[in-house]
């Protein structure tokens, strides 16, 4: 199936989000859509699949003009969209999610659970996914939930598959499985639109690439004919220089020390420390317990034993209030449920987290509030229409910047960042790295949990590796490389 979108215009109220945008998807190709956060990639695909209606323009599917009224219509035509934000029902099981609205009925018209379970298992096996089909979604990791979402899309006989940041929450091995599945779909003639900020993946996987900037079509090129620098230049209109900015190190005294921290089942005997001005990278495979250790330090997960010291004094952290009071900030992995109030505006999110900074003796000062919010939007380059825009309508990367702004202004002593650049474009990534370096230079002790090895290696002073709930090594970044980290992450020893 081939698709042409031409001259697409779309405004949300008075905000023109797409201006004369479009692209051409050939039969059986993997086509990357790239652009900065907020460039309009997801909106263009939501228009194609009938999630949003467009103001003007043309969509041709196999040469015939179409206008799908809803995603079900697009799906019937064979165009399936796997959304960036998970679209699963957390209280239901894997198989119930897979068959939602597509239940198999037996000859009496009753749900045939046995047949559904069999088919579910077949699909999971084909994907090489080892998740029990009877498991409840809420018990799975974000990565596993994402795999179920992908399996769900594969149940439909798709001719065009649109994937929006599919690997953001996947482990290395899950990503490899997904790429194999994509290659076999392509071999069967399925066309794939691949939205990602991960340049390496795009260069390894895609045939052609279309760049959008500020809602406008910039160009379409064959991947084999261009370099990553070309892509950056087209995306943001300039080059960004070094990917990981250099920092002049001045490491101070110990700020955080964790001794023998253990949870009933998730992690055991965790010991480490972080100094003022230091970036401690935390690496490990998905599900290794990295996030859980950080959640425990932040008072979100009960521990069985262990001690936490801040500035040399033991602190008792029973809940997040205690953690914040002790000077800990936490930028979570899952910004949608933990980091951000999506139905509140940018201004409200920043204000609520910084009430003491924007108040005079307990009364909110509009002047102080407006100054702080304006500073946040400018400093973090949050792309928005104004400070009153609801966070739910911001693009993924810009939501992440609001979360970061929210915490940075609280001036924590210790800042834990859990996957802070997930779904963030390359320019904004660099801005986040600069912010991390600035905070470190101001003496904040930083813990950077990340699944992107180049990021951990490029940004950290030391790297702690976690495997199956245990710290398997803490190495100086200068002496580390990807192979060493992977060895530790899979439970091996390094000399
Ligand atoms: N429902 C909506 N209401 C109002 N504005 C919206 C809505 N959906 C998207 N937008 C705006 O449209 C612009 C484009 O957003 P979109 O999600 O398409 O960007 P994107 O290129 O996919 O970004 P990212 O890489 O961050 O996912 C953004 O400025 C966003 O705030």
UniProtKB/TrEMBL annotation:
Query: Where does the source fall among the domains of life?
Result: Bacteria
The ABC transporter domain covers which part of the protein?
Answer: 3-239, 250-493
Q: Does the keyword Aminoacyl-tRNA synthetase apply?
A: no
Bilayer topology annotation: Peripheral membrane protein
A single GO molecular function, which one? Answer: ATP hydrolysis activity
Q: Which CDD domains match?
A: ABC_Carb_Monos_I, ABC_Carb_Monos_II
Any idea which UniProt keywords this protein has?
Answer: ATP-binding, Cell membrane, Membrane, Nucleotide-binding, Repeat, Sugar transport, Translocase, Transport
Q: Where located? A: Cell inner membrane; Cell membrane
Gene Ontology cellular-component annotations = plasma membrane
ATP-binding keyword on record: yes
Q: Which SUPFAM superfamilies match?
A: P-loop containing nucleoside triphosphate hydrolases
Q: What's the name of the protein?
A: ABC transporter domain-containing protein
Species of origin: Butyricicoccus pullicaecorum 1.2
Q: What is the lineage of its organism?
A: Bacteria, Bacillati, Bacillota, Clostridia, Eubacteriales
């Amino acid at each position: 199936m081939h698709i042409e979108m031409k001259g697409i215009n779309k405004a949300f109220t008075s905000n023109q989000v797409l201006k004369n945008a479009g692209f051409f998807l050939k039969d059986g190709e993997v086509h990357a859509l790239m652009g900065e956060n907020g460039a309009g990639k997801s909106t263009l695909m939501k228009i194609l699949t009938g999630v949003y209606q467009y103001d003007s323009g043309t969509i041709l599917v196999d040469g015939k003009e179409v206008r799908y009224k809803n995603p079900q219509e697009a799906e019937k035509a064979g165009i399936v969209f796997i959304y960036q934000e998970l679209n699963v029902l957390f209280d239901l099981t894997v198989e119930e999610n897979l068959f939602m609205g597509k239940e198999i009925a037996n000859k009496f018209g009753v749900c045939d659970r046995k047949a559904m379970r069999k088919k579910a298992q077949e699909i999971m096996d084909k994907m090489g996914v080892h998740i029990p089909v009877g498991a409840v979604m809420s018990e799975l990791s974000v990565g596993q939930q994402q795999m179920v979402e992908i399996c769900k899309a594969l149940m439909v006989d798709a001719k065009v598959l649109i994937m929006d940041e599919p690997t953001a929450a996947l482990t290395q091995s899950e990503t490899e499985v997904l790429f194999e599945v994509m290659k076999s779909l392509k071999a069967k003639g399925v066309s794939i639109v691949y939205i990602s900020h991960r340049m390496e993946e795009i260069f390894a996987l895609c045939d052609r690439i279309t760049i959008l900037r500020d809602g406008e079509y910039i160009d379409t090129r064959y991947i084999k004919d261009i370099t990553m620098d070309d892509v950056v230049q087209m995306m943001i209109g300039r080059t960004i220089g070094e990917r990981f900015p250099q920092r002049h190190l001045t490491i101070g005294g110990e700020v955080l020390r964790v001794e023998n921290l253990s949870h009933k089942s998730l992690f055991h005997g965790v010991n480490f420390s972080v100094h003022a001005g230091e970036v401690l990278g935390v690496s490990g495979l998905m599900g290794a317990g990295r996030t859980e250790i950080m959640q425990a330090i932040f008072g979100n997960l009960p521990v069985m034993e262990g001690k936490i010291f801040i500035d040399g004094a033991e602190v008792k952290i029973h809940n997040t209030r205690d953690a914040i009071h002790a000077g800990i900030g936490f930028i979570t992995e899952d910004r949608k449920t933990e980091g951000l109030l999506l139905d509140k505006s940018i201004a409200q999110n920043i204000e609520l987290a910084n009430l003491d900074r924007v108040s005079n003796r307990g009364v909110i000062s509009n002047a102080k509030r407006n100054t702080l919010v304006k500073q946040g939007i400018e400093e973090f380059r949050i792309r928005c229409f104004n400070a009153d825009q609801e966070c739910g309508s911001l693009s993924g990367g810009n939501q992440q910047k609001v979360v970061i702004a929210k915490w940075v202004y609280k001036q924590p002593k210790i800042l834990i960042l859990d996957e802070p650049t997930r779904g963030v474009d390359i320019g904004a990534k660099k801005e986040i790295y600069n912010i991390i370096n600035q905070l470190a230079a101001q003496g904040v002790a930083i813990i950077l949990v990340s699944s992107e090895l180049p990021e951990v290696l490029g940004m950290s002073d030391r790297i702690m590796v976690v495997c199956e709930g245990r710290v398997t090594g803490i190495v100086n970044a200068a002496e580390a490389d990807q192979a060493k980290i992977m060895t530790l992450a899979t439970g091996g020893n390094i000399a």
